[in-house]
């Protein structure tokens, strides 16, 4: 199917053809979350139309919102992300917001936008391990939150359903963080 061919979707005109990995193209939205590295709690969530730049654009919006909540610019804020975020414009936007980008370096055939000084820090290694916590939220939302195949149409409704599902996941995580578990010896 040529890229220029986009079917006229009467049921959900906001959904876009998008291919993830080696799968075939399907009509999709993209869900984005920002989470706390310490506990994996969701700080912000949103849905956008699927395209190649939506992840970075949504991340900039959510990071800007998070940075505005923390008024003290001396408080260090870091963001851990995968190779898809290793782009000069995203790294520069993070640095302008006083956010340290702990983004996985994409060195396949090009130079990474992440400075070597950042990549060699101890905090960078921790962020690269902790960033995988966010995948648990997506798994929960797809199975328990019923987001694998949404039953609503339109960007606004899908966004509301996604944010509500992530809020429910957030409450489940907070409950389990507060429990005292017996120590096995």
UniProtKB/TrEMBL annotation:
It comes from the Bacteria. Coiled coil: none annotated. GO terms for molecular function: DNA binding; transposase activity. Pfam families: DDE_Tnp_1. InterPro entries: Transposase_11. Keywords: Plasmid. This is Transposase.
């Amino acid at each position: 199917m040529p890229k220029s061919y986009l079917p006229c979707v009467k049921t959900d005109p906001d959904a876009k053809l998008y291919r993830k990995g080696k799968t075939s193209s399907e009509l999709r939205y993209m869900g984005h979350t920002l989470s706390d590295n310490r506990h994996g709690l969701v700080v912000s969530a949103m849905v956008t139309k699927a395209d190649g730049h939506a992840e970075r654009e949504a991340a900039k919006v959510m990071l800007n919102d998070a940075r505005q909540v923390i008024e003290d610019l001396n408080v260090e804020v870091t963001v851990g992300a995968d190779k898809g975020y290793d782009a000069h414009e995203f790294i520069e936007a993070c640095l302008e917001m006083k956010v340290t980008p702990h983004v996985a370096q994409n060195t396949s055939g090009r130079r990474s936008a992440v400075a070597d000084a950042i990549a060699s820090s101890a905090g960078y290694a921790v962020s690269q391990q902790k960033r995988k916590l966010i995948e648990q939220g997506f798994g929960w939302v797809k199975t328990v939150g019923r987001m694998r195949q949404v039953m609503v149409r339109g960007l606004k409704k899908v966004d509301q359903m996604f944010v509500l599902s992530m809020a429910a996941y957030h409450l489940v995580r907070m409950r389990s963080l507060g429990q005292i578990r017996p120590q096995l010896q």
